[in-house]
Amino acid sequence: MKKINLGQTNIKAPSIVVGCMRLNEKSKEEMNAFIHSALDMDLNFFDHADIYGGGQSESIFGEAIHDDTSIKREDLIIQSKCGIRSGYYDLSKKHIIKSVDESLARLHTDYLDILLLHRPDALVEPEEVAAAFDELMAAGKVRSFGVSNHKPMQIELLKKYVKQPLHINQMQLSIPVSNMIANGMEVNMDSAGSVDHDGSVLDYCRLNDITIQAWSPFQKANWRGVFLGDSEYKELNEEIDKLAGKYGVTATGIAAAWILRHPAGMQVVTGTASIDRLAGIVEGAKVELTREEWYKLYLAAGHILP
Ligand SMILES: NC(=O)c1ccc[n+]([C@@H]2O[C@H](COP(=O)([O-])OP(=O)(O)OC[C@H]3O[C@@H](n4cnc5c(N)ncnc54)[C@H](OP(=O)(O)O)[C@@H]3O)[C@@H](O)[C@H]2O)c1
Fold first, then answer.
1. Residue 23 near residue 278, CB atoms below 8 Å
2. Of all protein residues, whose CA lies closest to atom 48 belonging to ligand 1?
3. Rounded to whole angstroms, how far apart are CA atoms 88 and 86?
4. List of domains in the chain
């Protein structure tokens, strides 16, 4: 498994992260088998959030590792997130600490390797975030921190008060949903891709050694489903299938390889509940697409080169 340097840490992390958002319906035994299969593939990085499955994703995961002495906590990298509540966002100190305590209880662990702020909260008071992070770190409950869906200036605002480095920014990215790449090329043009939706987050993260974790790597925009095999993306799927044939991997594997080919050194956060699909993604991660192949997929998804 390809490893990346995680943010400014010394951690060598797998480039494929096992996302747990959709795993809440597994039984404890199924989850245990899923975790073992992932570990067998050298995938030891698991992405959670307090809200996934209403807490059930963390609970089932925690139960699945709790009684299994063959799984050592120190061999796992467990990341969770907080800040989304029912009908509003909440990055207050009180909520951050309560959320982490509840995640730890559900996960049957004493610490999170990484805590992410799930979404920017319009009412955030960065001094409170700083106080929460200090308390969680001093108590040994969280070892490192990051954000998700944050713009550069929002990260800068947090950094004015937060002492700990922010190592990660988890953002939606797939071949079709790649405005963060498009607006870096359609500079000063009158085209859809020229619109900067994210404050140049890609360059900002590279400049500051913040690892981008690509969420929903196989999805279309706005939760409209998977682009793979979808007639809306006929040309893209034809190009993906050609490369899947050339490299002897799955179409999903090629879609992962496209993200990993970017020199920012990102991680792909998968959402599959299927071991076979995960194995295909792991094989795809070994493929190094050529520059021409990378651009061909980009253009086939409907992006332009000015
Ligand atoms: N930070 C955030 O705001 C945020 C938001 C959303 C998600 N996330 C994280 O990102 C992870 C991934 O998100 P996601 O689940 O939306 O991503 P995804 O990997 O793009 O989508 C996975 C879903 O697509 C299905 N699927 C159907 N055909 C597929 C194909 N050919 N290839 C791949 N998947 C196919 C999978 O079904 P099968 O199970 O049958 O394979 C699964 O239900 C989540 O688990 C979570 O950890 C973070």
1. no
2. 215
3. 6
4. 3-300 (3.20.20.100)
